[in-house]
Amino acid sequence: MDHIPIKVGKNLKSIRKSRDLSLDKLAELTGVSKAMLAQVERGDSNPTISLLWKIANGLRISVTTLIAEETPQVTLVRFGELEPITEEEEGYKAYPLFPFDAKTHFEVYTVTVEPGCSHQSEPHQEGVEEFVIVTQGALDLQIGDEAYAVEQGDAVRFNADQGHIYVNRSDRPAWLQVIIRYPF
Amino acid sequence: MDHIPIKVGKNLKSIRKSRDLSLDKLAELTGVSKAMLAQVERGDSNPTISLLWKIANGLRISVTTLIAEETPQVTLVRFGELEPITEEEEGYKAYPLFPFDAKTHFEVYTVTVEPGCSHQSEPHQEGVEEFVIVTQGALDLQIGDEAYAVEQGDAVRFNADQGHIYVNRSDRPAWLQVIIRYPF
DNA sequence: AATAATCGTATATTATATTGTACAAAATAA
DNA sequence: TTATTTTGTACAATATAATATACGATTATT
């Protein structure tokens, strides 16, 4: 048996054990037969890509997690020590939590948008993506010609090579977590 | 036929064409039969993980590249539609906002930790980093032998190849944004 | 302690992945 | 133009993936 079905088996067993799931339970979650799951875990069978997909979906993980091979400081950021980036619009502030770095190729901000404030972002270079999570309040997000009402707890991912505008039409401040990912 | 073998077929054909390779040549490079390669490209067959591995190796690409899905221009995620991942600890829930993808190499969760709850995460593979932002409440984060008090608005970045424990000792729920970044 | 439920594994059966080969159409060489 | 080579597809044979079911061992319940 090739090495990769063995690796898949180890990864799967490890995940299953960490979640304290029986093969029966996993069969329920994934729609794959218990006997097949056992074979896969033991590296006795070479699963098809659809089967791995079913397993990954049932476990709410990605297929990549199942095929991943092994390859091991702590940074604590205090909000009170962050110096916000402000713009001409008084009601928009961006607190840089994690700066861009060559390894991750993304940066993370906490952003606040006061009631009535509207903030326009210029298009980034092609390939840049933004992930916006509204952790408090609500936001209207205009991306190109479309407008999206983003409620508390909701999240949006979009290509940031389009102009986009953050608008807070509510009467409470909006708090966002923003991840900006740059292409390699 | 499931959608993923169809996706694999499209990706493979696209790569092969971009390199101006015939099926015969690809069969030579990969050690997979020409007939099978044709079936895979047409989405007529559901390849095993070993077969994908052989194809990827022959082409000097990763398996992930073969299974990658295109991302839409804008993805809006509604919190109310998310199915949380729960574990044996009753008070810990992880809502998957953005799943892992071959391009970004990270996944994003909203996590809730109820008062008094303690959640242990097994060490990830080496090279995996976690970014944890506390957007509501407070958290004690134990990483290896160290403990960190993380207040609202604070954030932590750490290598997730160490065991780590989320503990909510306060009397309010803690809400976190968690980014898990996997090495390329 | 006895009984029931659960667990992972073994086995036989069915479904399908994978190969080798043949073929017709298209492309290339003479 | 004709002959040859290359290409992707069709098909049958072989190998193996995936399932349903049964089983013995272990755990949980009565």
TrEMBL record, chains A, B:
Xref: SMART domains: HTH_XRE (SM00530)
Alphabetic keyword roster: DNA-binding, Transcription, Transcription regulation
GO cellular component, one term: cytosol
Keyword Metal-binding: no
Top-level taxon of the source organism: Bacteria
Database matches in InterPro entries: Cro/C1-type_HTH, Cupin_2, Lambda_DNA-bd_dom_sf, RmlC-like_jellyroll, RmlC_Cupin_sf, TransReg_Diox_bact_type
Coiled coil: none
Domain HTH cro/C1-type, first and last residues per copy: 12-66
GO MF terms, alphabetically ordered: DNA binding; DNA-binding transcription factor activity
Protein name per Swiss-Prot or TrEMBL: Helix-turn-helix transcriptional regulator
Organism: Paenibacillus oceani
